[in-house]
Amino acid sequence: MNDSTWLHWSGGKDSAYALHKLTQQGGKLGGIVTSLSSEFRRISMHGVREELLEAQAAALRLPLQKILIPRDCNMEDYNSMISEEMAKLKAIGATHCAFGDIFLEDLKLYRQKQMDASQLETVFPIWKENSTATMAKSIIESGVKAVVVCVSGKHFDSSFVGRDYDLEFLNDLTEGVDPCGENGEFHTFVYDSPNFSQPIPVKLGEVVDKLYTPASNQEDEPECGAKPSWDTEFFFQELSRC
Questions:
Q1: 146 half-sphere exposure, CB direction, 13 A CA radius
Q2: I need a labelling partner for 49 at 20 to 30 A (CA). Which of 13, 36, 173, 234 fits?
Q3: CA 164, CA 168: separation in Å to the nearest integer?
Q4: pLDDT per residue over 208-222, tens digit each?
């Protein structure tokens, strides 16, 4: 890894753990790149505000490139937008893009196809490192600290958002829920990690219940290019800086 590698950063625990693994290999990351809603300025699917993403980048002391996704873009438009944004990275010296994916083969192939089209190499530092049950504990043990900001109503009630991603949370997971949330069961916001210069103090706000349907037009819809889960309820934890 060197400063020509950029990490696609979701703001969650998997990204933070992937960065931790990359930096353990030595060298310096070029920066992080994140997709946000252009209208609502929130991280796609996580619902985290732009100011908190910027706080993460500042704590990491890394440049941040934002990809602003319009509400109604289709797959063709999305892929074109990604190509344009990756071209910007290449223009400043990027040669590799890293991702925090764990075991979803179709998603990995999609990433590789996207990056191949932009003539960028892909890196998957935590890909099938261990079972997700083992990896979940490794993430916690590494010093990554995160709060659960989004859960699927198919698997959780609203009491699970706002909790820390810790051993107690893992012990409370029901059967069928991946311990890393790899199937989209839940998402997190990292407020401290081994790579942060300092923790990000956050406070919990209201819990928002949202139901997504094909006609839904809300700020936390899945980003273009992601597989939508229509008719699915999600609970979101509002966060702000202390």
A1: 33
A2: 173
A3: 9
A4: 998 876 544 444 444
Q: How does 179-207 read in b/e, with b if 16+ C-beta sit within 10 Å?
A: bbbbebbbbbbbbbbebbeeebebeeeee
**CA-CA distance, 31 to 86, in Å (whole number)?**
13
Higher pLDDT, 3 or 226: 3
Which domains does the chain possess?
5-123 (3.40.50.620), 144-241 (3.90.1490)
- pLDDT exceeding 90 applies to what percent of the chain? 79
pLDDT number for residue 211: 87
Q: Can you spell out the DSSP letters for the chain?
A: --TTEEEE--SSHHHHHHHHHHHHT-S---EEEEEEETTT-BBTTT--BHHHHHHHHHHHT--EEEEEE-TT--HHHHHHHHHHHHHHHHHTT--EEE----S-HHHHHHHHHHHHHTT-EEE-TTTTSS-HHHHHHHHHHHT-EEEEEEEETTT--GGGTT-BSSHHHHHTPPTT--TT-TTSSEEEEEEE-TT-SS---EEEEEEEEEEE-TT---TTPPPTTSPP-TTEEEEEEEEEE-
Rounded CA-CA distance 98/123 in Å is: 4
**Per-residue pLDDT band at 229 (split at 50, 70, 90):** very low
